[in-house]
Amino acid sequence: MTKNIPQLLALLLVSLLISCEQQTWESAMAAGQRAMQQEKYEEAERIFAVAVRKAEQRDGLHHRHVGVALSSEAQALAAQGKYVEAEPVYSQALKIYQDVHGENHTDVAATLNNLGVLHRMHGQYTQAEPLLVRALAIKERVHGPDHPDVALSLHNLGLLYIAQGQLEKAEPLYRRALDIREQALGPTSHEVEKSLEDLAGLLRKMHREVDAAVFETRLAALRRPRS
Q: Is residue 111 part of a domain?
């Protein structure tokens, strides 16, 4: 029985590959997203690569569907810590989005944001900053200054400045993100809770315990069980 295990594995692999090739772009994307949700990132990477090929064959090399599949493949790579491999995949998706939509589009902003975060996680702070700043500017133009997506970009830019030790530059970004989330999402939302926690932590790092305590008190009240 043991001798047959390699053959069974080979048959399973062939079956998986055949199944993948029979998928449409839509079904491959759905399967890849399910794998991501289950934290099966290596499997998701393979499935999204199939989705890229499907989109290229059906829609051409520069269709938005190709960009979507590439972005998802890059996310799966980044989730595995494969930052070097993910960077050119994100860059290829960005070029497609810019060709299809122009410079000011949410797809462009999202990919710039993801690229910036990727560079930050890889310690490439100089490359990260202009990408995150540009993503923020696009979101402000497209959505207006008080949209939750703007708050997300403010948060990511703040994280970059913290990683660089520029805490004073991060504080106004975190405060603005908190204000946006309170107005747009409500004062008890999970995003507001996260902003309160991050801002309090930042102020602690700056040795501003009194200021930090204000936000920690608000956070504790938000987390207190309701009777």
A: no
Cα 87 vs. chain centroid, distance in angstroms? 13
pLDDT reported for residue 15: 47
| DSSP string for 75-144 | HHHHHTT-HHHHHHHHHHHHHHHHHHH-SSSHHHHHHHHHHHHHHHHTT-HHHHHHHHHHHHHHHHHHH-
- Which residue range forms the structural domain that includes residue 43? 32-102
Residue for token pair 């991050």: 198
CA distance 171 to 162: 9
| Count of the separate structural domains present in the chain | 1
Residue 16 in this model has a pLDDT that exceeds 80: no
pTM: 0.84
Residue 114 one-letter amino acid = N
The contacts of residue 72 (CB under 8 Å, 6+ apart) are 29, 32, 33, 36, 44, 48, 51
Q: Could you read off the pLDDT of 130-182 as tens digits, one per residue?
A: 999 999 999 999 999 999 999 999 999 999 999 999 999 999 999 999 999 99
- Rounded Cα distance between 102 and 20, Å, is 32
